[in-house]
Amino acid sequence: MEQKLEHLKCRLAECGSLAVAFSGGVDSAFLLKTAHEVLGDRVLAVTIRACVFPMRETQEASDFCKAYGIRQIILTVDPLTIEGFAQNPRNRCYLCKRHLMQTILAGAKEQQAAFVAEGSNRDDEDDDRPGHRAVAELGILSPLREAGLWKAEIRELSGRMGLATWDKPSYACLASRFVYGECITPQKLVMVEQAEQLLLELGFHQTRVRMHGNMARIEALPQDFDRMMREPVRPQILEHFRAYGFTYIAVDLQGYRTGSMNET
Fold first, then answer.
1. Which residues contact 55 (CB under 8 A, 6 or more apart)?
2. Helix, strand, coil % in the chain, rounded to nearest 5
């Protein structure tokens, strides 16, 4: 792991100046902080504000940059205006990622950053990730993957660095909560964001709320099933989810997992 970290630092030093696509998650936070240690003020964090990202994520990304004195720009994008995106095809992630990365590239160019990097790691190679194709096509760097770092290693290294993000739950954009072919609308995105925020506030830190028509399918860690079913938690979930607009609320017995919409 130490050799991987040194490889990463050497790769970042070669860049000279760098813009990091910064979501505030575990991977991009580790990449940004490491790049800042290597390159100092020649590093720029570029964060996207969009309806597919919860407001708390944008705020946490901003707080992180302020805490470490890292220069940041926030760019606003509306993915629902991307041709084909709202219809939620199987290449939705590709369409969105390409558009977002093009926006980040433009912002980086204005700030005179020589390269743009994003935070995918070795674990991301094991799932269907059309967004990776967009990253490769646009010449975006993936230093963590190049260094061979796995998620568990990034968490461990983040903990050593004292980053609060070291144990932050994994996160993916809200558009990933919908069955392919189901139209994505602002209202549906708000419903999912509200539902997941409620679960977070109730103490369930690794969850997904997948939307199937008017049904919410909750993915949670199996060890959380028992508490989710008990009073007063279960009635709270039912009451609030129905207020958000869901008619049916179900718990997926397979539990939380990434890429579950790719299973069918």
1. 193
2. 55, 15, 30
Q: What is the pLDDT of residues 143-201, one digit of tens each?
A: 999 999 999 999 999 999 999 999 998 888 999 999 999 999 999 999 999 999 999 99
Confirm if 73 and 107 have CB atoms less than 8 A apart: yes
Give residue-wise pLDDT tens across range 202-211. Answer: 999 999 999 9
Given a contact cutoff of 8 angstroms between Cβ atoms, the answer to whether 236 and 204 are in contact is no
- What span, in angstroms and rounded, lies between the C-alpha atoms of 32 and 14? 15
Q: What would the mean pLDDT of 2-31 be, rounded to a whole number?
A: 96
Other CB atoms within 10 Å distance of the CB of residue 201: 10
The CA distance from 197 to 201, in Å, is: 6
Residues near 121 by Cβ (< 8 Å), separated by ≥ 6? 27, 144, 145, 149, 150, 151, 154
The partner residues of 251 in beta bridges, in order of sequence, read 218
pTM of the complete model: 0.90
